[in-house]
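Retro notes
What went well: the complex prediction finally ran end to end.
Inputs used:
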Amino acid sequence: MIATSDWLWELDGWIVAAGVLCAVASSLVGNFLVLRRSSLLGDAISHAVLPGLAVAFLITGSRQSLPMFIGAVIVGILTAALTQGIRDSGKIDEGASMGVVFTTLFALGLVLIVRAADRVDLDPGCVLYGAIELTPLDTVPVGSLEVPRVVITLGVVSIINLAFVVVFFKELRLTSFDPALADAIGFRSQRLHYLLMTLVAVTAVASFESVGNILVVAMFVVPAATARLLTDRLGVMVGLSAVLAAAAAVIGHWSAITVPRWFGYTSTTTAGMMAVASGGLLVLAIVIGPRQGVLPRLYRRWRLAGMILRDDLLALLFRSQERRSESAPTAGLIRQALPVNRWRLRLALWNESRAGRIESVDGGYRLTPVGRLRASSLVRAHRLWEQYLVDRAGVTVDRIHQHAERFEHFADRDLRDQLERETEFPSSDPHGSPIPSEENRDNPSSG
Amino acid sequence: MSDLPLSISGLTVAYQRKPVLWDIDIDIPPGSLVGVIGPNGAGKSTLLRACLGLIPVAAGEVRFFGQSYRQVDSRVAYVPQRESVDWDFPINAIDVVTMGLYRQIGWCRPVRKRHRETAREALQQVGLGELADRQINQLSGGQQQRVFLARALVQRADLYLMDEPLAAVDAATEQAIVGTLRSLRDAGKTAIVIHHDLPTVREYFDRVVLLNVRLLASGPVEEAFTDENLQQTYGGRLTLLDRATEAIARREIRT
């Protein structure tokens, strides 16, 4: 719940706007970092821009935005180039060369900034963590509205990144998937690579002062990685990552205000919380993502196990009736034959009774005509499989049962007919049990 | 001379001063299926990549149809090794095949319906019509290789350079690919194929290039694919050349 008394639209609205714009701008280009397996390059570039900021400041002596911006972007691109250069020069892999370049540049930046900070207010802490909470204080009039400068900058960067991804979508897909083909057919992958790196650097620098380093680094990688878990389509992935990034920004700011209060603290850093929120969304996607999520997978496995159990139950009753045993098997007897706990069996019995496939008589269970129809095709599949395994696959008779037990659940009418043809229309299986004939659904013969 | 699909003269490629390919001369006549044969590390992939300008060349000249690659690149199709790309990439089969048309579509122009139709036809041609919308990591190795072949086919090139298209594929894929190669040749096209399986060379190819850093033989199968040439190809490198280059490398480290 939003504590409305703490939420001031003229303040929090702008803070959230800055966060959302930064998150969306970063995630758009971040998709292609993730897909090119160079996620860390985003991290490296956003740290390495520091000396660029410092040098531009030392040269011009002012905190004017433009020179610092350009200086930082140049160093950012240099990071990508140096990384590649060191990797190509010898036996240093990409990860290590990235680590070498960005830590060196970052350290150099810190040294320079401390030097510069002696003279003017360039605060290393502010550069690291950003000051997104101060967003609403520095405004520029746009029409009748006072819009924070940060929001304008990040808005422009977001539009540039969006345009880049839309206009070069085809080229980005090609060069990310198969750079060799791209080069061979005249789409220079290096050119696009450096264009991408330039935008990564621009995004990092634009976000640097306002929202801090942590947020950009997280937003380059986390929303794209999350989106990748949820879709197999590149276009959907890019769109989804932007939506997830924006959601993380909103959730993050709200939690920064609200969550610490639950524990009796005052609000915490918004940028940090936004990054935490994006991590939370990733965890959520891992746990409940519809395709690869842990819970949906467990659920699907549980349902399959249930289906197999119900099939086994029907087949068991069918065989019992086939042997013309006097009494219908009770739940206890069934449980001796099927290795399953009491509750699952009870659920399966209830399910099948409700579906009208079994009925209870004198404390035991037996098949209804409908149930018999299904059971006979299962047993038919089982015995045809056994015949097939002996005839065609050369499996010995003592081992066929366990295989057939598994295959019987995955044999529809078509497959059963095919099995029958391949085994030349047998009347009994290798154990000598009769193979039930295919029963007509319109005219179920009752047992 | 000028109509030769591929003419290589004096091609040398070095990696940190160590030659990977050394003074290669090859002429490929049109309408032939050429197998490139040689042991691992012989520079087979490097040969194709160097011809296409994907890696820097130390010396030599490569002409396609008498011109430089960039002048005639639309007449040449390249099939990289299957392992060279990430098959977990979020993309389906038809989108991969459409990539073969990107040059024709041009920078920043969108892929249109007719392009996708062309791609679909190519997939049908290699027997994957029903798998067009399948995510590529759900395809078997052989099917992935056929997707790559379809991507080359849509380029309607006159010369095809293929890096191990028959490596680790199922029998059905091998037959499909070989059949496609033959129909390309019958249409007067040329294919240069890196191949690793010696017993099938005579059956599949008209010409061979035997390579092991230097060129051992290049010509019609019956002339060039001899036991003697094979022995030379697989029997070891030119050891004196190796020693010379190692001496150069050592000298460079010391100074």
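What we learned: Strands of chain A lie at 139-142, 145-148, 358-361, 364-367.
What to try next: split runs per interface for comparison.
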